Amino acid sequence: MTSADVLVFAFPLWNLTIPSALQAFINYNLQASFSFKYNEQGQKEFLLGSKKVILLNARGGLYSLTEVSAMEMAVNYMRIVVQNFFGFEILD
Predict the structure, then answer these.
(1) pTM: predicted TM-score of the whole model, two decimal places
(2) pLDDT, tens digit, for every residue of 29-85?
């Protein structure tokens, strides 16, 4: 993860969220002093550089429909983690 310029995450929608193995990967890599730190003003600084990310998700059902889109937690969660906690740019 530290030497890659582009990261591709391919994951299914499992029980409305991501698989536990992907969650474990995130938990091991999302650590203070490794992927981020807080500066003297208390603001978060990203430490892994400006990486690009592609999210590939497989799921059954029509989660693009307005009435069920809020239940699609996998892609929404990954977007939040990748952008707000790792500081990476999502390409697609």
Answers:
(1) 0.83
(2) 999 889 999 999 999 899 888 899 999 998 877 777 777 777 778 888 999 999 988
Q: Which residues of 43-60 are buried (b: 16+ CB within 10 A; e: fewer)?
A: eeeeebeebebebeeeee
- Owner of token pair 């009435």: 67
Question: 44 pairs with which residues across the strands?
Answer: 38
Residue that the structure tokens 């990954």 belong to: 78
8's CB contacts (< 8 A; 6+ apart) are: 53, 54, 56
Cα atoms found within 13 Å of the Cα of residue 71, Cβ hemisphere only:
13
Contacts of 7 (CB under 8 A, 6+ apart): 1, 51, 52, 53, 54, 88
